[in-house]
Design a protein that fits this description.
binds zinc ion, alpha/beta, 3 helices, about 20% helix, globular
């Protein structure tokens, strides 16, 4: 069972955020893009209002992402704090990798939303985006088990 009683609420994105995610993703390709999402819980789901792109300082940025530590720490002190993480899969579809799942425990509980983007096929289609909720259930050992629950995304005209 999930916190949403089996029904996963949508994640809403303003059109400016959608554009910003797509732009950052494409400008970083073939490297992975990453950044944090700002927003709030709203009636009927989470709402993303802003995107803060970050430098990817991973040793292998073609296949991994590590947000610039200085930018990361700065973002965590924002009020309100970021509610989500975005990164791109320049070479594969926007579904969580094993490494993505393994990285979830490093995110604080304020991170509730997880977005992954991929370039559109043949470079002409618009970027593809998948949204997930970070689900934390108490595990047998006392540490939470982390999962990503696929959520419907919808755009807001604004
Ligand atoms: Zn990934």
């Amino acid at each position: 069972m999930t916190a949403f009683q089996g029904k996963i609420q949508p994640i809403a994105l303003s059109s400016s955020v959608q554009l910003a995610l797509g732009k950052h993703l494409l400008s970083c390709t073939p490297q992975e893009a990453c950044g944090v999402l700002l927003g709030a819980a709203a009636a009927g789901g989470m709402r993303i209002n802003d995107y803060m792109p970050m430098r990817n300082v991973a040793p292998d940025p073609l296949h991994a992402f590590v947000p610039d530590p200085q930018e990361w720490v700065k973002a965590l002190y924002l009020d309100p704090a970021p509610i989500g993480l975005f990164h791109s899969h320049p070479h594969s579809s926007p579904w969580p990798s094993t490494a993505d799942i393994q990285g979830l425990p490093s995110l604080g509980a304020e991170f509730k939303v997880y977005l992954i983007g991929s370039p559109g096929s043949n470079g002409k289609e618009p970027p593809r985006l998948n949204g997930f909720y970070i689900d934390r259930q108490p595990g047998a050992d006392g540490n939470p088990n982390h999962r990503l629950l696929h959520a419907p995304l919808y755009g807001l005209l604004r």
